[in-house]
Specification:
By secondary structure, this protein is α+β, with helices and mostly antiparallel strands. Helices cover 21% and strands 28% of the residues.
């Protein structure tokens, strides 16, 4: 497998609407997912959309490791999960502003409004359709990654550009924002 270069904001390929995957179980789709995982692991990332590595297909790979979940949160870890042809449906109008970052905008964070509760429907690599509900940070993560499939980067979702900041200014030297349990769980 391979580590692929991650496109940065300004690259026109990040603004293309991705195509559906015709055969989720194909060798090509499996190889793409393997490359996405290698790429994510190389940068300690937890989410990547295929367009970020120059592949205009509706594929997202993500995980939610226990180390990123605040102590006391109800949210459970999620292993590496490929989402093929995902479709998000908001469950209600309630939104929450959480700090987001993106591998295509390295070193930056911003507060972005996202639906607090969503349902996501996607195919797995066996072409089975799966539906699940997600809340809080988990819902935000999936909305962020699926936006990439429609050519949208998070600055386009920001109602207030003054919340765009360098990670060092928001998070201190560690460079990673620490969410409260309530923020993370969406409560």
């Amino acid at each position: 497998m391979a580590i692929r270069p991650i496109l940065k904001m300004g690259n026109p390929a990040l603004h293309v609407v991705s195509l559906p995957v015709a055969d989720p179980g194909s060798a090509e789709t499996r190889a793409l997912i393997d490359d996405m995982r290698d790429t994510l692991e190389s940068v300690s990332g937890i989410g990547l959309a295929a367009p970020q590595i120059s592949v205009p297909l509706r594929v997202v790979l993500y995980c939610l490791p226990a180390a990123r979940i605040p102590q006391g949160a109800a949210t459970q870890p999620v292993p590496w999960t490929p989402l093929i042809n995902p479709v998000i449906t908001p469950l209600g109008d309630e939104k929450v502003d959480l700090w987001e970052r993106c591998l295509s905008l390295p070193g930056l964070y911003a507060r972005v409004p996202r639906h607090r509760h969503i349902e996501i429907r996607y195919q797995n690599i066996d072409a089975q359709w799966i539906t699940r509900q997600c809340h809080g940070y988990h819902a935000t993560l999936l909305q962020h990654e699926c936006d990439h499939l429609d050519g949208v980067l998070y600055p386009a979702r920001m109602p207030d550009a003054s919340t765009l900041a360098y990670a060092s200014e928001v998070c201190g030297p560690a460079g990673v924002y620490t969410y409260s349990v309530a923020e993370f769980d969406g409560t």
